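step 3/5: co-fold with carboxymethyldethia coenzyme *A
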Amino acid sequence: MKILKVDHIGVAVKNSDEGIKFFSNLLGLKFEGQEVVAEQKVKTTFLPVGDTEVELLEATESDSPVAKFIEKRGEGIHHIAFVVDDIEAALKELQDAGIGLIDTKPRIGAGNKKIAFLHPKHTFGILVELCEAKK
Ligand code: CMX
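step 4/5: write tokens
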């Protein structure tokens, strides 16, 4: 498995506009756009910085995983996403090493990228996302 870079840091927010005010208007990160990932009931906002980005996550429905996360833990860092060269191979390697996976097969995330989440129980309580490099 080859980790190429941190793709993004997901930040759960109650209100994307408030997040944009801080990260973009105040810190100066570029606002690159937004996308609703309907299957995951979340609106994502992309704020690139260097060769990575901050990704704001706002629940689109009250039963969204992001709404549940905020209810339980408050707003804050929700996940860290790494780009891998081959996501299927990386998942197999991790599974063989005994790491629990939320997604044994990739699903489609923001930007139409193949993504998969590892189980936080096996990753120091941090939700880790793998996403595949664009080919
Ligand atoms: N941080 C730490 N732990 C988390 C977590 C988080 N952000 N999200 C979930 N967990 C924990 C849960 O507490 C649960 O723990 P236990 O098994 O000990 O109870 C475990 O992980 C599994 O969570 P779940 O909600 O029961 O499992 P699901 O399979 O229903 O959902 C997940 C898991 C990660 C997909 C979902 O919680 C989630 O966060 N979905 C939104 C994903 C997202 O951010 N999408 C945006 C676009 C993605 C992109 O392209 O970047």
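step 5/5: annotate
The chain has three helices and eight strands.
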